[in-house]
Amino acid sequence: MTRSDFEHIALQLRPLMLRVALDFFGSADDAEDVTQEAQLALWRYCERIDPARNIKGLAVRVTKNCCVSWHRRSAFIATVPDGSPSGPASAFSPSPHELLEAQDAQALLTEALARLKPRERELFEMRQLEGLTLDEITHLTDIAKPSVKSMISAARKKLLTDLKQRLRQ
Amino acid sequence: MNTQDIQSLIDRYLAGETSNDEERRLALALYEAAEATDEPLPDDWQAVLLMLGELTLGESLYDDILARRSHTLSAESLSMQNVSAGSTSSKNRRLRVWRWAAAIALVFATSLGIAFYQSKTSQRTVASASTNNGTSEYHQWDTPVSPVRQPDANSHINEHDQSHESTQSVASGNANRRKRKAVQPMSKPSSAELPAPPQEEGAEESLLAAAEAELQKGDVLYQALSPDDDPYAAIEAAMRDIRSRGERVEAMVAEITRPY
Asked: Are A114 and A130 members of one domain?
């Protein structure tokens, strides 16, 4: 999906993402901010999104993730005394070590995914990223449900073995 | 969720048998296990947490936060309901007490009013009796209203007839006075006290005259039985007198009934 395509879809996704954020915060201002943050995350990821897929599930999951991040940040601001020299936002930001560990873990997963067969990677991403059920994947891919289940299981086991080896190194 | 539950969920996850909800619960359990200890998680668990991804973990945290918040809200609303229910029950209790107090006060005031009215009534009765000295007004205060006192035609007839009889003759006046005394003004007149038909007035007068004569005889007997005289002698004299009267009557009867 190109970024221009995403800009058209983003207008359609916005009410749904705003409702998810409003259910969580109850405040229109916070929900607006979180929706913008979630749309920014999707915009960065949009070139990896298949335009034929249903993007609504992914948008909801990304919005929920942004809501949790925003909530953690707000909770941390509430616990930090006023007049802190470093500032709440910077204080909440992960340490460089934690940031490096997270980047390494993401890189490990990306490399492990790259070593999967294309069909296995596709089914795994449909299940993990988009949150589709086996029946929905069966409906979208026209693959039998037992086959979908066995391919997803094989992909997970391969990833587990690969990630365990990488984590031990 | 303990270690065994987490491990069984991981096995099912790797077999592709878990649902979206179970995968979210697994991600949350692994995240909480990592947060609970400073030691790193086993490699299997770390790898599964990576595979589940940030999105699954964020979604599970989102649901967890909302569930806790709704639980807190429901607990607060429950406590508020309890507080409001407690205040309502205390209000109802106070209202019930006031109702009872009002009812008791009403009964007390009513009894006081009745007692005051009765005392006033008795005072007025005594005052009326003392001023009228037993006249008909005194009787009007004390006499209860009863259906017997209702005026009827027979009582008027009786009174009218009695006044008529009292003017007829001097001989029957005493008997009439005795009859008036015997008749109770409050009672309903009986059939014997009703006025006799006009054609029987002559017979009634003769009967009254006979009764008067017998009374005079009684007076003679009473006079004969005065305590100053000898009772036996008086009785014998009275018997003689009666006997002589009887003889005279027999002679008169024989004279009357003698055939011509």
From this structure: yes
